[in-house]
Automatic annotation (TrEMBL):
The organism of origin for this protein: Sulfobacillus benefaciens
Pfam families according to UniProt: ABC_tran, oligo_HPY
Assigned protein family: Belongs to the ABC transporter superfamily.
GO MF, any single term: ATP binding
GO terms, biological process: peptide transport; transmembrane transport
PROSITE patterns from the UniProt entry: ABC_TRANSPORTER_1 (PS00211), ABC_TRANSPORTER_2 (PS50893)
Alphabetic keyword roster: ATP-binding, Nucleotide-binding, Transport
Domain annotation ABC transporter: ranges: 7-253
Protein known as: ABC transporter ATP-binding protein
Amino acid sequence: MASNVLIQTNDLHVRFVRQKQLDIFAVRSLNLEVHEKETLALVGESGSGKTTTGHALVRLLQPESGTIRFEGEDVSRIRGKRLERYHSRAQLIFQDPFASLNPFHTVSYHLQRPLRRLGHLSPKRAREVCHDLLAQVGLTPTATFENKYPHELSGGQRQRVAIARALAADPVFIVADEPISMLDVSLRAGILHLLESLQADQGLSYLYITHDLASARYLAQRIAVMYGGSLVEIAPAADLVQAPAHPYTRLLLQASSSSWGQDLAPLPEKHPGAPDLTITRKGCPFAPRCLHAMKKCEQEMPELIPVASDHEAACFLVSSS
């Protein structure tokens, strides 16, 4: 891809500790790049590691090992003022607008707090910028919204406030964690159009986390597919939708709303349910669910290999072109 890399992970691992049980790697050996002014969609079912990846990239979580480089700087383990400066450049839009806003504070408070904390603005200037942010996300007249509480807003309005709060820090990179999944279908297109417009106006880069391949195809230039904490396929959006190479990606597409009316692929007789995330796991995480799995798949993790231009998949069935 011709554009410059904005944020990049190298062999990233994120570990969670479970008492009296084996620790788990929610993300393992992740190598991912997001380019300047690009939207990369990260897709997969619940538990695949998407949100954990997003939280690690904005450093709400510290990785167990590996690196995160932002604009060439290693931000994997920064703390204090350096981490605060990083948070002014990399922000997160949470999934649930009903939970991400404090019900005891007004819209104005939610927007002015990051302005004053990260931007160090005076109260007067912070209020002016607050009105500008509300206008940017389509909440006008702004004076009507600034003193409202979250319970006085619709779901779509709350999510627009959450987007405005992320913009308040003046970031260049935003992790949008399923920003439309909690909204009515009629409101989803408006939020996607807003994200698209903000990107064009401000040159933003997004990691767009979703389980919805239709919205990923609409918003993103590239799509990366995760399963069991591992990256299994990445390609330009149109290529991935039209010619998926990994069996899991094909299953996701088959289960999408655009495929309603088609028969789903059968499951193995001993379908294991959730993937194994324990440290001792061997082989491909999708192997227990894959109808094409071989003995090799149970013992070795396949590496990402090129299958077409800018298209890679981690599967022993895939041949390099």
